[in-house]
Design brief:
Number of domains: 2
Strand content: 15-25%
Structural class: alpha/beta
CATH topology of the largest domain: Alpha/beta knot
Distance between the termini: 13 Å
Largest sheet: 5 strands, parallel
Shape: elongated
CATH superfamily of the largest domain: SPOUT methyltransferase, trefoil knot domain
Number of helices: 10
Bound molecules: S-adenosylmethionine
CATH architecture of the largest domain: 3-Layer(aba) Sandwich
Order of helices and strands: EHHEEEHEHEHEHHEEHHH
Number of strands: 9
Helix content: 25-40%
Amino acid sequence: MKFTVLTLFPEMVESYFRSSVMAKAVDRELVGYNVVNIRDFATDRHRTCDDAPYGGGYGMVLKPEPLARALDSVGAMDKKVVYPSPAGRLFTQEYAARLAEIPEIVLICGRYEGIDQRIIDLYVHEEVTIGDYVISSGEIASIVIVDAVYRLLEGVITPGSLQEESHVDGLLEYPHYTRPEAFRGRSVPDVLLSGHHEQIREWRREQSIVRTRERRPELLTRDGGRDGFDTGS
Ligand code: SAM
């Protein structure tokens, strides 16, 4: 799978693709990436990529022309284009799994007040928010999305560990323990030391349900976890 990321700060995004598990996935050719500097598509002397908003108000907006040229340079009209934005639909595990089935996604990293609406109208398939808060960097939001998607690709992570994670079946994951058996007066639950696989499975399932009910009760009542995203590519 390939990730194409359009950004004003390519060094932020490139360093992510060159680190840790992602770097290994790139080396093994499970993941390809293309980081495009939007500024390379600005034509004026100062390589201007932002301008004041029509109608007045605070901040700057990413201009449409350099962004459109950058998008055209990667053939974005024929690809799945995602714009991370606090005004988007909530990015979920389910949507990450759907994106993982697409050969290439193009991400636009917003900055300042965001990007010109006409770019969204013309090119963007989905605006997604990584949560109900505002950060200053579309790069960080894009990296969150890429990270949630690529780890689902075959060969990146042991398949068993993906199946038991939070949000996969609408529940939060059970608690984990490792050695030592006792730590600062707190012991590992007996059942985990019992070697009885069926009881351990039941205990973990129960813990998942209790945690979800206590911390995120709305997950238990969601309509099958469906998030309303377009399933097409
Ligand atoms: N003025 C925008 C608003 O109120 O919706 C916020 C712009 S934010 C400071 C700059 C960029 O960061 C956005 O264009 C977007 O790409 C990214 N961003 C910020 N918060 C985000 C979130 N919760 N989810 C996804 N992207 C986000």
